[in-house]
Write a structure and sequence with these properties.
163 residues
Length: 163
């Protein structure tokens, strides 16, 4: 620590800044890979809950509507002429329920795929970046830790002759 006295009254102590940690290339690559892994873990590629609910409710309604319509037709066929007295509105109602179920299922699928699409694209991009960084890290580790590039021997001899 340095003590400086300014005009005999004020003493100021100056300290050297802490040394900046120097990362090697391998440490930097590993830190980048770890950051990508963290982002991948936090990335949600699932369908939104309303889309999934819409799909499941739609499947339930469609199956109920079509099964109900099938049972009404079967009952009408078994009963013969007495089955024809079943109200047409009941048949139409079952078909409407089935159609509503199909529409809800389609809405659930479309909104789910659209909502999850950007997150999946980002996941693919991050995965590709991680693969590229891991390849660079493996290549860096394959190199020997101390690779010195020496100048040609003629330059070394010239340098040695200057002493």
């Amino acid at each position: 620590m340095l003590s400086l006295v300014l005009a005999g009254v004020l003493a100021v102590e100056a300290t050297a800044p802490p040394p900046v940690p120097v990362r090697t290339e391998q440490e930097q690559l590993q830190a980048d890979i770890d950051a990508i892994n963290t982002r991948l873990r936090l990335l949600d590629t699932n369908w939104p809950i309303p889309s999934a609910v819409s799909l499941y409710v739609g499947i339930g309604l469609a199956s109920t509507g079509f099964l109900g319509e099938g049972m009404l037709l079967f009952t009408g066929a078994v009963l013969g002429s007495r089955g024809r007295s079943l109200p047409v509105g009941l048949h139409v109602g079952m078909l409407v329920v089935a159609g509503l179920g199909l529409v809800l299922s389609a809405i659930g699928i479309v909104t789910g795929v659209r909502a999850a699409g950007p997150a999946r694209e980002e996941r693919e991009r991050l995965t590709e970046d991680r693969r590229r960084l891991e390849d660079a890290l493996r290549a860096s580790k394959r190199q020997s830790p101390m690779q010195l590039e020496l100048p040609p021997a003629s330059l070394l001899l010239q340098y040695a002759g200057t002493f």
